[in-house]
Every structure is written in structure tokens, then in C-alpha cells.
Amino acid sequence: MLAVSRQMPVRQVLQVIVDSARALAGAKYAALGVPDERGSFGEFVVSGLTESQQRAIGPLPRQHGMLAELLRGARAERLPDITADPRFGGWLPQAHPSMGAFIGVPVLGSEGEVLGIIFAADKTAGGEFTTHDEELLSLFAAHAAIALTNARLYEDSRELSAVEERARLARELHDAVSQKLFSIRAHARAASLLAERDPARAAAGMSAVSELAGEAQAELRAVIEGLAPPALDGLVASLRRYADLAGRAHGVCVSVTGRAVPPLDPATEVALYRVAQEALHNALRHSGGKCVTVSVSGASRRVVLEVTDDGPGFDPSSAEGKGLGLASMRQRAATAGGTVRVLSAPGQGTTVRLEAPVRAR
Q: Is the pLDDT assigned to residue 194 strictly greater than 60?
């Protein structure tokens, strides 16, 4: 149960489950398989075999014999001798150990779908597996279902985050760059028409083109910086570099301060950096303020990040679900065990505040 709750890699959790099931059922061998769509197994975790024995057996098993029956039947199977059962498909690799007594249980999801199978073979003390062993294996199958479901939810959340990130990038490219490029084209066309009859105005137009091109380049660099995985060499120093780049791109003063910032683990640093990026982006593009401050501080085993602007403010309840990135910020904060609050009111500016626990590096 602790292995499942500690958010360890799913294969490590399954290994703990299989090892524990084998020990408590008094079996020589145990395994847990997660089927794939190609008739084999995407994961097959074994207990009771050495690494050299597993290498000698070779590739992962196919979905045949009793393994296929467990996947199709979605019910427990307890046999005194698996080799005597007509559904037995044989040991395909010669190096596979011979097994007699067998017990297998499907790993069922919340909707009754088969996520995998867990089985044990050969009692170390001899004899058959009991009803108690079946209940025990069913309990481990339930914990395996939790681990596999958590892993699937994690992958789904990663895919959703990727979709949201692409949408954010498209929005920023449209807002920050495409409009500038349209203005550059319009100024360049106007300058070309004025080149012969009014060279002074044409020169002024080309100067505007140069200025707009510089702004577009700076904004594009800021977008690329936000897209690339951050290689942080200290949270505050990295925020200062990004804030300087983003502030110059938008012509807004941005200051960054750090006070008593404790050593942070990499995941917390990245979460704080990404939330600061999103909050700073919102402040620069939407607040209408003249100055933005970013502060990071630590106290009582907690780290606090605040991004504050001096704009006109707004009613935070009206921004829920309006595309200001609040859901993304809260999701990123949650990865560090933290929470995000938006503090604002009409005429009082806006502060995005993230609080997270300090974890050991």
C-alpha cells in the first residue's frame, strides 16, 4: 500500500506487489503481466527467478494457454497441477521451469475491464494453493489495479498537458508574433510606396519596420524560452534572465527579488519557474500595468512565489476558465505539492501567489 501511494515508477510498484504476493502465498514463483494489443505483454514482472534464468527463458510470453484464459475469463483459477489442465499451452522455451500447483487472478479495473493478471506457482511447502491464498492474491490484484490505473491517469494527464502546452504556444505565437509581422508588412509596403515621392516618410517607415522586427524577435525568443525545458542554474537567477527578456519584449519594467530561498529539489524548482513564466506572461500581456515584480522567499519549510503587477486588477472569480492559464498554473503547482491563489480586486492590481513545501534536494 505504501509502494502504491509513494508514486514510485509503476514497474517498481508491480515488483513490490509480486514479491510480496509470492512470499505471503508461500510460492516458489509469481508473476504479473499487463497485456498489449499485439498478443503479448507490455509489462511482465517476475519473482522467484534469477536474472540469468530470465535471460535464458528469452522474450516475454505470448497470450496463450492459461494466461490467455485468465485474460479472457476474468475469473480466478486455482489448479492442483497446471500441466494436467486441458487449457495448458506448454512451456515454450526449454529453459522455463516446470510448474505444478497454480493460482491465477485477473487484475480488474473499476469498470470490470481486465488490466492484467497475477499468478503464483508451486507451494514451497508442497501441496495445493488454498482459498486463503486466493483471497490474498485477489487483494494484491486490487492494489495492482490501483497502481496501473494511477499510471494510466498520469499518462493521460501528460498528454493533456502536452495539448494545453501546444495550445498555449499557438496562442502566444499569434498574440506576440503574427500581429507584429502583419504590422511589419504594412509598414514595409507603405515605405515602398513613399520611397520616390516622400523619402523622409519612407525612411521613418523603415525605421518603424526595424523597431517592430526587433520587438518580434524579442517576443519570439521569449516564447522559445518558455517552450524549451528549463536548465535552471538557480531559481532566482533563472527567473531574472527570463524576466529581463520578457520585460524588454513588452516594454514593461520587471524586477525579481529572492529572500532566504532554501535549497529546492529539481521538481519544485521547475514547477515554480513554470508558474512564474505563466503568471508573468499574463501580467505583461493582460494587466495593463507599468511594473511587475517577482519575489521568491522561504520560511517555515515553505517556499512562496509571488508575481505582482500594478494594473487595474479584476475580480478573480470572473477569470475561472477564461484561458488565463490558471488551470495550468495550479496543475504545475500540484506537482510540487503546492497551491496557487490569485489575489486581486478592481483598482488594486493583481498577485499570483504559489506556496509549496520545501522538499529535500
A: yes
